[in-house]
Write a structure and sequence with these properties.
Layout: H1 18-67, H2 76-115, H3 118-147, H4 152-203, H5 205-229, H6 236-251
Length: 259
Amino acid sequence: MSWIPFKIGQPKKQIVPKTVERDFEREYGKLQQLEDQTKKLQKDMKKSTDADLAMSKSAVKIASDLLSNPLCEQDPVFLEMVTAFDTAMKRMDSFNQEKVNQIQKTVIEPLKKFSSVFPSLNVAVKRREQTLQDYKRLQSKVEKYEEKEKTGPVLAKLHQAREELRPVKEDFEAKNKQLLEEMPKFYSSRIDYFKPSFESLVRAQPAFSRQVVYYTEMHKIFGDLTAQIDEPGLSDEQRERENEVKLSELRALSIVADD
């Protein structure tokens, strides 16, 4: 939301008390900040869920690529390990999708619905501002005739100007009163609105609990697989040296040798 008052000549009479104008600006400013923060939170939540899904989808893709890699063609043990990895990554992706769906339902959608209210509020504030400018313009007109010599034509025009001013004044006062009453209520409602939403997210633990169980099971699966393929007693440094030896043997082959 943004509010840029119309530029117009000010009447000599203070038609809106400064305290009232300060109260209005303060309450409206709080709602502007609330709108900005709501949009930011919605955007950040969307980024978070997108990143979460992208991570699990990438893991599924890696497992799928490994299954189709020649590395697995003639090694049943390695194929078994990669197949287990592929299954585990698909399970992880399923859990992530369930979690993201829950966040979408309990947080992102409520944020989106809450944000949809601000455009109507913005319109109401603009209407109030336009009415205020009409009020000032007509008040200046009345003051102009009040300062003139009270001849018949001037009195007639003064009467007409006051008649034009009255409904506009009443309209502004009604709009101003409504906004000053409802803007604080709307701001205060944010807690009652979002509290159930985030409580629902916190209570939606079955998916997260199962994910903890899943990671425990996956740790066991890969622990068993590691025990099957690892040479007993080898440290990480020894495995690294062994890999370097094997890589050197590969580089010595004529098909990869430098010309």
